[in-house]
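Researcher: We're reviewing a set of sequences before deciding which ones to prioritize for further study. For each one, I'd like a predicted 3D structure that I can look through quickly. This is TetR family transcriptional regulator. If possible, include the structure in token form so it fits the rest of the review sheet.
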Amino acid sequence: MVKKTLKQRIVDASVELFQQDGYHNVTVDRIVEYIGASKGGFYHNFKSKDELLYEIHDVFISYVIQQSQAAYDKFDTPITRLCAMLQTLTQVFDMYQAHITIFYEESRSLSDEYSDIIHKKRDHYRDILQRVIAEGQEAKVFRTELPCTIVTMAIVGMINWTYKWFKQSGPLTMEQITDVFTDMVLRAIVTEQAMGEAKQFIIKG
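Model: Here's the predicted structure for TetR family transcriptional regulator, in token form for your review sheet.
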């Protein structure tokens, strides 16, 4: 097993402590005490708690962007690309649910400096997804009467709310939930002539 860097240990500890007691109730002193590090070690990696909160967000948004671009490059049809990207987006809520919960609950605490970077990264992800929707509409695979931007935002909005209700101990795995999302999205946006390709990703009744 690869030994974690001090930066990784600080992030992991802060996620645990922020989730337990809230961002504003956890001090830098408490974080470094929790992992047996020094304040100097903290400030060598982060100039402030704000930067630490930004890093918590960056961990999962960078993963989503990287994996979404990889899915786009790996597959060659709008339907297969979209399904792979839906899987990537839902998977992040399983892998980084604590990070995502903390960020959404505490993001208003961030300064404009970090908020601007976050907005750019989120726009980057949406641009990849919207490109797939637009290409699908151009190829008459996705319904053209649905505005591309609204379809994109609807998909992101629907899945983003998963952090509020998903439980790893719940009756459905994230893979099963992903199948439901995929079924709903495809049935809503795929054209009749493209439904043959989409059927392999739709839940069999």
